[in-house]
Design goal:
Length: 169
Amino acid sequence: GHEAVLSCPNISKVSLLLVTWKMSCSSCCLLSYRSDQNKTSRLNCSERITWKYSPVSDPALRIYPVNLRDEGNYTCQTANKEGNFHFFSSLTVIVPPMVTLTHDKSRVAVCQASAGKPPADISWIPASNHSSEEEFHHPNGTVTRVSYFGWANSSFPSVTCLVTHPATN
């Protein structure tokens, strides 16, 4: 859902003739600009994929909003009088999990981190050997982790579920 910007450095002071962005698959988006015709071409590109700025001044690629299907390898090709240049970028999409904490009558706390990518880590405070975990992989590449904490025989009045993930603080 956020913005991704992939840079394409212009390492030469010579005027840009052509710049092309493509994702590494045969039917993926191809976005290009020819300066001699002042023309932008789009092939298989959604409206979410465009230039961040003007391709003449800065040929950075903007993807907004990003989704899981955008993950992959991208190539920026530039051409000028000095030659052709290739720049490679790899886009990894991370998805924060939805977190829920519930308990049942038998004093089992259930902490669930749903649909995260990569999977979230779940720990308990206080730490205990009385927890177990399950993991469910979804077709879109996200993962749900569920941790169970049995505290029926515990002297603790409460337990805390701690979920950590790269997409959250």
